[in-house]
Here is the input.
Amino acid sequence: MQCFPSLVLALSSLLGALALLQLSLYLRVPSRYGKHEERLCRPRGRLPARCAWFVQELPSFLVPALLLALRSPPRLEPLGCRLLCCLFCWHYFYRTFIYPFFTRGRPFPLQLLFFGTLFCVYNGFLQGYYLIYCAEYPNDWCTDIRFTSGLLLFLLGMGINIHSDLLLRQLRKPGEVTYKIPQGGLFTYVSGANYFGEIVEWFGFAIATWSLPAFTFAFFTLCCIGPRAYHHHRYYLKTFTDYPKSRKALIPFVF
Ligand SMILES: NC(=O)c1ccc[n+]([C@@H]2O[C@H](COP(=O)([O-])OP(=O)(O)OC[C@H]3O[C@@H](n4cnc5c(N)ncnc54)[C@H](OP(=O)(O)O)[C@@H]3O)[C@@H](O)[C@H]2O)c1
Here is the structure.
């Protein structure tokens, strides 16, 4: 396989367009899973959350891993391959093989699962193809301020995301499906602490890789879970009269 820059440009542009489409769809109405399924009509087919998250996220890990394994010669050079392995695949290893097995979430709608899985194939291919076959970095990239600051942001975001998802999980006993007020960590400041972490993480990845596909994916993430954080916030304010009034939706002290 070789690098076709026009393919990367086309796939990135389509991802950007999908991001804007999502933003326009989900600003007014939240995506219909989790706590927002209650207020809206319940879709018919649903899969247990563990299974659904595993199936949905697997392609994001598998597609780049396969591209990497099929690369000839099979090695971890150039630097793009290492970045991909260490950051992108690391996140999706966690999201596919660890997160689903601890979730206490409600069953997930099949329709959303279908689109989520398609997206993961698409994005896994785009990020993997670019970093394995197209990306070129100077030898001293690892000491470049973009790499070091991006890596720090990525790690910080991932830490916030994992910690916040853990705090949410601890709100429920096994088998419970009720909603409570999240407390602690970054939830002290925002309702969408896990989403804030994920957004910081992908912008960090974009800065570290300094690539169009990664910036487009970070933008997509913002357009996808940014509105969801806002809807979570409104849900909490409506549902809990004692919900902390100083808490923001997504960005501490700002929004
Ligand atoms: N990169 C992307 O574009 C993208 C897109 C979507 C998700 N994600 C990531 O995937 C992860 C899960 O996303 P999500 O949309 O499912 O997050 P979420 O709505 O915040 O829910 C996360 C988990 O916590 C439970 N939960 C949420 N609020 C709760 C409360 N107040 N009390 C008790 N339990 C509560 C949920 O149960 P229920 O399912 O029963 O509500 C679910 O199991 C997050 O880390 C997110 O950042 C990334």
